[in-house]
Design a protein that fits this description.
Low-confidence stretches: none
CATH topology of the largest domain: Cathepsin B, Chain A
CATH architecture of the largest domain: Alpha-Beta Complex
Largest sheet: 6 strands, antiparallel
Strand order of the largest sheet: 1-6-2-3-4-5
Number of helices: 8
Structural class: alpha+beta
Mean pLDDT: 93
Strand content: 15-25%
Length: 263
């Protein structure tokens, strides 16, 4: 299952308020935490969920920090409310500390196909504090949905850089069968089965009419003629719908099945 990607500055909601009493903050300026949560919620719970709904939930339940962003306690509470397992990785601030126990647990989670929300300190991803969503670890690099940027270096970077600038982590366990690792495995299996089924349905047929057979660009005589096949020509039939057979794997080439005979 492909993870939804949202940006907090999206014109649909970036200007909307995300503020505690007395503030004038917006989703674009302070909504990185709820935007990360919205990506997960819209992927696994309801595709209609956007940062707007999640920000409203955070404000209503007291998780908007005055003059800042979102309280750390927000993630576990919000995900619990929608039935998603989320747990903050125990440990102190690991910013600029290499290979802490927190770092190791976060890496293990990514390798297992889970998601990791990280609170980042100053550096590549922020000048202050910022939440980002890591969704894959591959070849020593972390793949990230950054709610505040689409820059390549912020979307994919080394694990060493990532752990060096991360302060705290939250591990999110998607519903059973829907981790990034499991969905990739399922997609691969489905592709293999589809390929096998397509191969099984394909057969060869011979052109019957003495005058030959018109190949059309679509299913019907109203479509332009591509070419004329001579009598006796053997063609592969990949798909049959109604009276028309598709005889090319990638191009839209069709012939009337009435004038074909299995070879």
């Amino acid at each position: 299952m492909k993870l939804k990607s949202y940006k907090q500055y999206d014109k649909r909601w970036g200007h909307k308020p995300y503020q505690a009493k007395g503030e004038t903050a917006t989703i674009a300026g302070s909504g990185c935490g709820p935007t990360c949560a919205a990506m997960v919620a819209s992927t696994y719970v309801d595709p209609k969920i956007t940062p707007v709904e999640v920000c409203k939930w955070a404000v209503k339940h007291g998780y908007k920090a005055v003059g800042q962003g979102t309280y750390y306690t927000f993630f576990e509470a919000y995900f619990k409310s929608i039935g998603i397992q989320c747990e903050q990785v125990p440990g102190s601030n690991s910013y600029h500390k290499k290979d802490t126990q927190s770092d190791k647990l976060a890496l293990a989670a990514l390798k297992a196909g889970k998601l990791v929300i990280a609170c980042m300190g100053p550096g590549i991803w922020t000048r202050g504090g910022h939440f980002i969503l890591a969704h894959e670890y591959k070849g020593g690099k972390v793949h990230i949905n950054d709610p505040a940027s689409g820059a390549t270096g912020r979307a994919v970077n080394t694990w060493n850089n990532f752990q060096n600038e991360a302060k705290y982590y939250w591990i999110i366990t998607p519903p059973k069968g829907k981790t990034q690792k499991e969905t990739k495995k399922t997609a691969k299996k489905t592709k293999k089965q589809t390929k096998k089924a397509t191969k099984a349905k394909t057969y060869k047929a011979k052109v019957v009419p003495k005058a030959g057979l018109n190949v059309r660009k679509g299913r019907g005589t109203k479509y332009a003629r591509v070419k004329v096949l001579k009598r006796g020509t053997v063609v592969p039939v990949y798909e049959t719908k109604g009276n028309w057979c598709k005889i090319h794997k990638t191009k839209n080439w069709f012939v009337h099945k009435k004038y074909l005979k299995r070879a």
